[in-house]
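_Per-residue structure_
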Amino acid sequence: MTLSLKSSTAIAVLLTAMGTPVFADMEAATAFLDETIERSALTRTEQESEMQWFIDAAEPFRGMEISVVSETIPVHEYESTVLAPAFEAITGIRVTHDLIGEGDVVERLQTQMQSSENIYDAYVNDSDLIGTHWRYQQARSLTEWMAGEGASVTSPTLNLEDFIGLDFTTGPDGQLYQLPSQQFANLYWFRYDWFNDEKNMADFEAEYGYPLGVPVNWSAYEDIAAFFTGRDLSHMGIEEDIFGHMDYGKKDPSLGWRFTDAWMSMAGMGDVGEPNGLPVDEWGVRVNENSQPVGSCVARGGATNSPAAVYAIEKYVEWLTDYAPPAAAGMTFSESGPVPAQGNIAQQMFMYTTFVPSLVEPGIPVMNDDGTPRWRLAPSPHGVYWEDGMKIGYQDVGSWTILESTPVDRAQAAWLYAQFVTSMTVDVEKSHAGLTFIRESSIDHDSFTERAPLLGGLVEFYRSPARVQWSPTGTNIPDYPRLAQLWWQNIGDASSGALSAQEALNNLCEQQEDVLARLERAGVQGELGPVLNEERDEAYWLEQPGSPKPALENEDEEPMTVGYDELIQSWQQ
């Protein structure tokens, strides 16, 4: 879908770009509401009132040019190409909204934090950095900002209670450091039509002794992957080579996200706790009662190289090798995401729902002629070490972050833009464009009740109580940029076969502890920084309750599946 502003608003933006002054007023706002906002959680009168507030609050900043940045995904493309020009036409503040890779966003954020040079006036960066922002105190506390220097530019209709992801952007000190702009989860994806084909169902049950359905655990997922890989589906009119699994394995920064984005917690490596395991999280990092990191390796009470972690990596490598297309091993996150849309993948352990827009394009092999999908989304299955009360998936929460190094007036103008693109006036429309929900009012909007049958379970998931078990990286991670880069390099060694899973994870946990030790020595995070435990015999920690967990004698648990329609019905009840 091509996204663009029309008529009056677009003309206003064009005139501004040509150097012709545009008088920002309600006329531009009215054109924007008429031409772009077809659906909203607010009435038209409420929308106009909210737009009038933006016009008034922006008056001191008219003519100012600000720069913000986010990663390149559809929802941020909508912000950059549709909402930024509208904001300029309505407020007179010109916004350059850059779209770059996620790794580049983190790198520039890190550079600004280290140099105090104002590179961008605001960043949409993942809430995975909440532990970094809370400890370094280089991101403005939005709680303090809204009560102080940002009070005059904080919208009375911001309605923080309506946001669904504030738990992920709040530090242990109770301060809000980031404002969500988009959220997407990693969910189990499968071919609903293949799973409900009578021959496939009968053949699967005859071979495995239980019904073909949504896998509850990894044992069932593996059986389903084996069943479909190489299967002849000519009785369904399909002639392509079929694969029972999709993933990616290229030694690339995105390979790190593949694992820190909850794969280890799905396996059962960490502790019970929401939104993240405590005291050991899904990175295997343990914290003490003061939220200070104390170790990553089992010898210090961490779990990054624990038996559950080894199990997680071994299953990843095994499935990638045995059940995924051969090309998958050389793919990155962005290259692999659209592959299921090509029509020869039976299931994927986790599908980042940011790819859903590419999976609902008319005419592609995974769509019916009537516009309904041939696939569905469901909760991801869990590994043998998983237990009730643990998180079971990842939720990306790209959030507006304003650093202390940004001058106050530029921060105020950027805060206005951040609120505009997350406002209740625009959020339903933005949610339809990107399918990345941040507000309860948008999820519950009637237009999504109507569209739900076309989105394969996405709406049902976000309206379900299961949603709380999907969360981003939590506050155990004291320096996301430094620690995250260690993951893809070490996991890449396991993925390529250069090292065993145990060897790669031993290296990873030791390198994580090297970073923690440097932070401890530097004292840059004060009383919030790491205080490493003394090393002990691993047996001591493996005998303690919780994580790290000792190896199970049998890691092949009884496979379990559930009917998809039964699952959805349980959510609705």
User: Anything to note?
Assistant: The first strand starts at residue 65 and ends at 71. The domain at 7-177+395-460 is CATH 3.40.190.10 (D-Maltodextrin-Binding Protein; domain 2). The chain is about 40% helix and 10% strand. The radius of gyration is 24 Å.
